[in-house]
Design goal:
Length: about 170
Amino acid sequence: MKIAVFLPGFFLIHLLLGRAGSIPYGIAIFHKWYTASLIIIPFDFLQILFFSFVYKLASKWSRMNNLWRMMRINIKKFLKRSRIKRVMKSERKFHSSMLVRAQKWGELGVIFIAGVPFVGGGMWSGVLLTRLLKLSRIRGAILLMTGSIASCLILSLGLFGIKTVIMKLF
């Protein structure tokens, strides 16, 4: 009976607020941290599939319209006529070293970003980072799942501990 009441509300809360809202809701309904985590982790896995599909669809759409290619050609034409070209060359060197550093720490960054339950983190940002780092789908999914599981367990244990302390005080 609890599951029938729990799932519609949980789905909306997880969609709108992410893990930061759905884990407290799951703990409030089931009173056990591991039950809430076991229900939330599959929803995060479904988010990985959904966001990967959205990014793949968006990249196909941008390639079909040649939007990026047209923008790149126009920027190159503008830079050939301006004095900014020398500045842009030095910026490109700086960005290439930053890209190397991001690729070096990128896999740990994917785990961390996927595990952050607040604004700027989560599955949406994690999937975007895997696409930007050009990781394989399987490797990216494993990294995202690792971050999701770690975050769900840490957050649910922490919130359950806070709930237990508050219940003992009152």
